TrEMBL record, chains A, B:
SUPFAM superfamilies according to UniProt: FAD-linked reductases, C-terminal domain (SSF54373), FAD/NAD(P)-binding domain (SSF51905)
Recorded family membership: Belongs to the flavin monoamine oxidase family.
Residue numbers binding substrate: 344
Protein keywords: Oxidoreductase
Natural source organism: Nocardioides jejuensis
Protein name (database record): Flavin monoamine oxidase family protein
Residues that coordinate or bind FAD: 20, 39-40, 427
């Protein structure tokens, strides 16, 4: 281990083999550059990961795709991973104030008056989100005032009813892995704007949950990594340091050293500070690394002999104010050969549930499923959960949840190259940030920056 | 470098040679334990650091002490570092809304009506802070409601005038290195409670700025380190990993390995995640490491032939709504042999100013001093500034500035031992957290935990 090979000279090192880093590497390689990817974990994928349980394929991280998520769709098609529609037939369920009810659509049927109020808040959020230009939150009118508030304080100021507040708290937990009081309103609005509106963000049919992948999302990452070629992706090699001298960066891992013309860092914002960079990052970049924490969002999967809820005319989609899973989906394979329920556990519920031992987590998750779908749900033939906070080289998810006051001063810094370093990762996207689509877009944007910089350098060299 | 000595077996490894780690090590050693301290930087002191410029001693980090800060006072006296009163004779200055005025006391004379409003907000904050038990913010009535708000949103809800808001924004910048909108109200109240009230926190005479140290604060750290003995403090040795197996922790640095019965981690909360720990920290501890960022607070010092402002009946103490320094003090040596002005630059002003090149920072800082104290202030015989965000192994200061929603879920986790690991650092204190006194208290508390744990283990061994 201590006898390293001499440093390898390459065009670009990409740090992080998540979808964003892999998309960057693919784009760079197609442009004719010599690219190597280093990954801290012992697998590729980052925030996409898969497992097989009791005959079912499970997406433990990024799962769904929907309309306008063109880049992840294009990439998946290029590597031949197929999609199918999320099951939406039948009624959705809600468990609310101790009662179970059935409803249709995205917003639960909490009674006509409550529904009007939820609609009012949704319209107001949507309208306000249209004032935030995707990729340029600092250009929003009143950006400072919007960043000074949390999503929660904004809802209180707009006199959301308790039911409305709870509905949007559930959306906040499942979307950002946090409570509304933890999140900058400017970030929430910008995120909605980058998704094209709340309907697109939250809906299943015609929204971000419309389809999932036959072979699973991890297969996209695996195939992109394979296409990069033998010896291009180095696993279990965390970037320890990046030393920039003139126009060369020395990138060190426990076992490898590279001399690169450019570096793309494609790790979650909150993991950036793990890499020692010289000359040191500017003050805003240092402060940013401490200020955009990962959300707290976990997933619980139960696999059954059949999707039994369909027999009762139910879609498998549900909302619960009790949890631990606050939102569920039918994540069965296309042929329905087994039944798969997926529950999202986020924010305060996840903080409680994540710390429990595995059998207790399982008991509580299945208890929540049974409250929604009946006693049968207590007896799956397989169960698996994924707590993203405990995933060593990810440490949270699905995306950053910046607090009030932490967006406006740092949003530009998020994507600003630092000498030879360019930034990828879904947080740096200007469309569908927080999603797999944003990850791919951000990787492709960072690659384009590098290609432009390297071409300019080559032209200068020739003069 | 790659040929390490075999792991050394010790009782305790302390990570971090700031005041907190050193106080812990001193207490442990006095209890008869075999203690080693590893420090990432090439100096001891952490958030206390000193420099000599043009014949003046400058405290670049922690500087002042005041009444009830008994532990730092006791420690400084034990190692023979002396104190003297901060100069407070004459009028204080303010530069407000484009005009310069003189006033007495802590709250600037912004006119009688404005003063009444500022007094009203101060009383309300003080009263509310008394509902938060020091060291147990989770026991405050309405803790969740308090944590859901920012200091800024609370001031707006209480209809603070623009002047009042700005006064407390300046206090926020100088105290926590952040804007009021970034800070959890619960944290602000708890911090005030841990200091014993706003007067104690903000005042010079009879408050936390009452005295400073003749030989400087860094000398306290240096002497404590020296007293630990030859070979006890290992500089330039960042903790890379802590692997806990049974009742032994293996602590690794680039050049050293220790096998310890217990480990005290005495680094800022936001630096905790740089250390790889196995078994991994619990989910809340991981999330906490991403959620308590360091403040952004810098200092600018100008050294003059004499403290010339005293000739005009001025104390050197000032408040400015223009900045970059929002608060200044006379930090001259006791004999007044040279004149030293100290300016605090925090929050939004620091974010702007920290990124400037050194000559521009100097120009702007001196311009601010000149607006307050006249043209003479433009021509010091020496100048030095310290941007704590750029200090590699500190990365911010003076203390953590947790956002809304990030205190209640994580305050217990902050000090909860994780198997063989105990936590020190001023953020973990229950009195004067954020100050040198809190650092010492936290170190002594962590040491007491270790001593108790180790004695229990010894008793168990004998049975």
């Amino acid at each position: 281990m201590n006898t390293k090979a001499p440093a390898k000279t390459v065009d670009v090192v990409v740090v992080g083999a998540g979808l964003s880093g892999l998309a960057a590497a693919r784009t760079l390689q197609k442009a004719g550059l010599d690219v190597h990817v280093i990954e801290a974990a012992d697998r590729v994928g980052g925030r996409v990961r898969s497992a097989n349980v009791a005959g079912a394929h499970l997406d433990l991280g990024g799962t769904f795709v929907g309309p306008t998520q063109d880049r992840i769709i294009a990439l998946s098609e290029e590597v031949g991973v197929k999609r199918f529609a999320t099951y939406v037939e039948g009624g959705n369920l809600m468990h609310w104030g101790g009662t179970r009810r059935s409803y249709r659509g995205t917003i639960p049927s909490i009674g006509p008056i409550a529904l009007v109020d939820a609609g009012r808040i949704q319209s107001a959020l949507d309208k306000l989100s249209r004032s935030v230009p995707p990729g340029r939150p600092w250009d929003a009118p009143n950006a400072q005032e919007l960043d000074a508030q949390s999503l929660g304080s904004w809802m209180r100021a707009h006199r959301a009813t308790a039911s409305t507040y709870e509905i949007f708290a559930i959306a906040s937990r499942a979307t950002w892995g946090c409570e509304p009081d933890e999140l900058s309103l400017l970030h929430a609005l910008h995120y909605i704007a980058m998704a094209g509106g709340l309907d697109l963000l939250l809906d299943t049919k015609n929204g971000a949950q419309e389809e999932h992948f036959v072979e699973g999302t991890h297969e996209i990452a695996a195939r992109v990594a394979a296409e990069l070629g033998e010896g291009r992706v180095h696993l279990s090699q965390p970037a320890l340091s990046i030393d920039q001298t003139g126009d060369v960066a020395l990138v060190r891992t426990p076992d490898l050293e590279f001399l690169a013309r450019r570096v793309v860092i494609a790790v979650p914002v909150w993991m950036r500070q793990r890499i020692k960079v010289t000359p040191s990052l500017g003050p805003d970049a240092v402060a940013l690394g401490q200020r955009w924490p990962g959300g707290v969002l976990s997933k619980a999967y139960a696999v059954y002999d059949r999707p039994f809820w369909r027999d009762f005319g139910l879609s498998g989609q549900a909302v619960s104010d009790r949890g631990p899973a606050v939102i569920t989906f039918d994540a069965s394979p296309e042929d329905g050969s087994v039944g798969v329920l997926l529950g999202f556990i986020g924010g305060k519920q996840a903080r409680m549930w994540d710390s429990l031992p595995e059998d207790e987590r399982r008991l509580r998750a299945l208890n929540g499923f049974a409250e929604l779908f009946g006693e049968q749900a207590r007896h799956p033939r397989g169960y698996l959960d994924q707590r993203w906070v405990t995933e060593e080289w990810v440490g949270g998810g699905p995306c950053a949840a910046p607090a009030p006051g932490h967006v406006l001063p740092y949003a530009k810094t998020l994507i600003e190259p630092q000498h030879l370093i360019h930034w990828a990762g879904t947080e740096t996207a200007d469309q569908w940030s927080g999603f797999m689509d944003g990850a791919v877009r951000a990787g492709e944007r960072a690659a384009a920056e590098v290609i432009a910089a390297v071409s300019n350098a080559s032209i200068t060299d020739k003069n």
